[in-house]
Here is the input.
Amino acid sequence: MTTREPSDHIVLRAAETLIVVSARIGERARIVYAGPDLPNVEPVELEQLASRTHAPGGPAQPIEASLLNTIGTGHPSPPGLLAHSDGQDWALDPRVTHIESEGELGARIVTTDAASGLAITHQLELSGVGVLSCTSRVTNGSDKDVALDWCAASCLPLDPTLTDVTSFTGKWAGEFQTEQTQLTRGSFVRENRAGRTSHDCYPGLYLGTNSTTESHGKACAVHLGWSGNHRLRVDRLSDDSISVQSGELLLPGEIILAPEGEYSTPALHVCWSNKGYGELTRRLHNHVLSRLPDAAIARPVHYNTWEAVYFDHSPEKLFALAEQAAEVGAERFVLDDGWFGARRNDAAGLGDWYVSHDIYPQGLKPLADHVRNLGMEFGLWFEPEMVNPDSDLYRAHPDWVLAAPDADPIPSRNQLPLDLTRPDVRDYLFERVSTLVDELGIAYIKWDMNRDIQHPGGASGQAVMHHQTIALYGLIDRIRNAHPSLVIESCSSGGARADYGILARTDRVWTSDNNDARARHSIMRGASHFLPLQVLGNHVGPKKCHITGRRFGMSYRAGTAILGHMGMELDLAQESEADRDTLKQAIALHKRHRALIHTGAYHRLETDDHIIAAGVCDRDRSEALFQIAILDQHKSPHPPRTRFAGLDPARRYRLACQWPAPLAKDIGTFAGSALIEYGLQLPQTYPDTCLIYHLEAEQ
Ligand code: DGJ
Here is the structure.
């Protein structure tokens, strides 16, 4: 960073994105523009174009927005920073005291509120793929304690035509469902108090105009990279201006800053597009992939034991499952819940991270070695943050759990959250996980977390959700540092912890416990708005889905799992030989196209409601793979034509259906323009069919 000469504007520019910030020493800092690039524009022109005359009946001078719209500025929008010192110093009006820049890719602006002594350091970073990441850090420069009630990462003005909001909600086994809302004047607010990223309140939004589609129109996406509580709000003011802000939702008294104390917000990630929602997705995917430690490594096909055995472990059964898994093409065998302590059901043993010698008299080493001898990696399930009251750990340390002194604990899956803000708790967990990784040669951890934390009270009785989340990150980082090649999955009752904060230190998310092939398509489509296929676990489940009770043929189940980080989670002994063979073929197909699936540019296709279709094109648009799922009966006698996306309209493509096997055939060679604009007539099939098409450009 270089310290800047005082000047009026900071300009960040990358990947067709432009951010203009007005920042002058002694004045308020303000985002003048953030959005798709405006080639050749001078910042002052934007100021001129936006200058307003006096509004009759309004304040005598214009009140501009600023980076946090604090109360002292008089701005009418909800403030992005709420703090006070024992009821005083609440009308904050911070002014710029320091500016540093990193050329066109980053800036740091320090603003200071003279009366309270609070300094706010705003960090803005524009990545090479056009995603802006902003954080704010508040430092208490006074000699009094300051209570911090709310601090957004930033308040960002949006194009006033972005009034269509897509939010992401859901439940256990029904994650990442989309909801559409139109902004009226007032506020769209989502608050998450689950103590984890949550099933029902994903920390991200898409915004578009009333005509934005996947491939056309203005759009913006925001995402808060945080795995604790959060608030995400979009406010449309009486002048029809729109601003978005997001930060950590703080519980009462949670953050009291002592003199010199600091609080940093999680990062808010934002990107824009003039070419529809799809471009936002591709920017965000590139952003995630650029931060993943092993993005370039092929993702091994998983076999997970959960739905095959649940808590009913036996070495004989698991040895046999490992052999069957290797036979159909698995490359990583993950032993799920039930291997430790007295964990024969979900009511006991959690926290006792010692291999259960009742079940495994020789320990787990023989199974881990067997798995490796079969050519697979060995992975193991943990739920480090939790404890069953019926466990040796809880009996020895009943004070190690989070609780609010005055509230009844909320029962949830017979377990309580451990207080990770305690160093002794973290040390115990680090020692247990680390020792097992070394002893068993664990290559992969499925890191689970299976309950909300409603009452995150620490030892002092104060709310500690913020510190708990930071402590979780620190624990994972410590384990990773000690075992650099370890791969970690973030699971939380399925997909309840799949944000960019956790993904900065884990490699994959378990998208959902729902392996129902029909339900999976909407879950994957929702998740795709923020998460690339490479990190989205997608497993083949049993023929009768354990969650929905619906039955599907192997061809549909396996075809569905091909698009994602493929795996399986079923008792292979219960499948017919023909179905195991179909599964083997699907895994082979996935492996053949794995590099394309995991690194290609992702495109959701626009289809009738009973079809969900998406696919990937490689970076030079010479190869593509699309998955088209028929979820229900067609409404007319003939299936609709489906238009592909992402192809080069000027090239010709050889088109082949590759799945399901009975429909597999070469279809012909077609102009890219026709495949994009005219589309392909789908074949007649039963509902619950998953078609896979491969396209290859002619040289
Ligand atoms: C919840 C996860 O989502 C499941 O996949 C499984 O690991 C169970 N927990 C085990 O308790």
Residues 1-6 have pLDDT under 50 and may be disordered. The radius of gyration is 26 Å.
